[in-house]
Each structure stands twice: as structure tokens, then as C-alpha cells.
Design brief:
Distance between the termini: 41 Å
Helix content: 40-55%
Shape: globular
Number of strands: 5
Number of helices: 7
Radius of gyration: 17 Å
Structural class: alpha/beta
Largest sheet: 5 strands, parallel
Strand content: 5-15%
Order of helices and strands: HHEHEHHEHEEH
Oligomer: single chain
């Protein structure tokens, strides 16, 4: 059994090493962080969405901004599109592809940011969300694990973190990217939480 544990951890380490060695991906992460900072600085809000594990990651990202990440600070305006009553209502009346787009039509505005997570880059409801966000004048950040997806041309910032054959490694990299985005945001607005060593 330990050989499977070691193989899994080694595969995860290779995926992380590949991300560390990818200057294009690192630049995209930096651009995503700056996009979030700029929106919050001008009174905008961050909306996040995804399916399955990616929805859990979208929720985790939002609550780390509205709650706290490391040390105490004021809350920041972030909302995960995850309300079950909204999802079941819109899914029933308009179809599952519209659940995120309809929420943005109701709440989004120019100056806000959509952070969409899709390991394949081809999730139809995230595509519809990105289309709706662009129509509203929002910025669109996409986290995915594949280049050349249907979401890429809809993104202002496209963060591609290929992790291997399956979604689990991509999702593991996504949570690392999300934590970095939160830290960059905190460092900007609350530098006192990050004293120099």
C-alpha cells in the first residue's frame, strides 16, 4: 500500500514542479491576482463558480476572502455561486447550463470579476457564465488544466495548470493557485499581516 501512497505523492510533486517551471503559468497567476486586487480596490466584487470539486474550490476561495485566510482583517467582497435554491430553480426552469450565467445577470456588474474553474476548460455552464460576465463588462479569470479549451478565448486571464491524465491533480494545483491569489490580495490590502522576516 505504501508504494501507492508514494507514487501518488510523487505524481503530485511532478505536477507542482511542472507548474513552478512554467513562466507563462506563473505570469498568468500574477495577472489574475492583479485583476482581483484592481476590482476590489475599485469597489468591485469577485464571483466564483465551478462544478463538483471545482464548486467546492470556488466556495473555499470565496470564504477565505469573506472570512480570513491567515490573520485577522476586514472581509472582502467575494461570492461563490453555490446557493442550492438558485441552482435548483434555474436548473429546473432554464437548464443546468444557465445556473451561473443567470446569477451573474442578476448580481454582476461592470467592474466585478468572474473566477471560473473548469478542469477540462469546456464546462458548458462555466462557458455561459463567462459569456454573461463579458456582456456585463466584468473581467473573466479561468482556472483550467487544458490549453486550447472553449473557455480560453472568453478569458481575460487564462491560468492553465495541467496536472496529468485525471482531474484530481489539476484540482490540487488549483487549490494552490487559489491560496496564492488570496495571499496576493491580502498582501496588497493588509501588508501588516505579512511582516518582513
Amino acid at each position: 500500500m505504501q508504494n501507492h501512497i508514494q507514487a501518488s505523492l510523487a505524481e503530485a510533486q511532478r505536477a507542482l514542479d511542472n507548474l513552478l517551471a512554467n513562466p507563462q503559468a506563473l505570469a498568468a497567476i500574477e495577472a489574475a491576482g492583479q485583476t482581483i486586487i484592481d476590482a476590489l480596490a475599485s469597489g468591485g466584487r469577485i464571483f466564483s463558480c465551478g462544478n463538483g470539486g471545482s464548486m467546492c474550490d470556488a466556495m473555499h476561495f470565496a470564504e477565505e476572502l469573506t472570512g480570513r485566510y491567515r490573520d485577522n482583517r476586514r472581509g472582502m467582497a467575494a461570492i461563490a455561486i453555490s446557493d442550492p435554491s438558485h441552482i435548483s430553480c434555474v436548473g429546473n426552469d432554464y437548464g443546468y447550463d444557465e445556473i451561473f450565467a443567470r446569477y451573474l445577470e442578476s448580481h454582476g456588474r461592470a467592474g466585478d470579476v468572474l473566477l471560473g474553474l473548469s478542469t477540462s476548460g469546456n464546462s458548458r455552464n462555466v462557458i455561459r457564465a463567462a459569456e454573461a460576465a463579458r456582456e456585463l463588462g466584468m473581467k473573466v479569470i479561468i482556472l483550467t488544466g487544458r490549453a486550447g479549451s472553449r473557455l480560453e478565448p472568453l478569458a481575460d486571464v487564462y491560468v492553465n495548470t495541467p496536472g496529468g491524465r485525471y482531474a484530481d491533480r489539476v484540482q490540487e494545483l488549483h487549490i494552490k493557485v487559489l491560496h496564492i491569489l488570496i495571499e496576493l490580495t491580502e498582501r496588497h490590502f493588509c501588508p501588516e499581516n505579512y511582516p518582513a522576516p
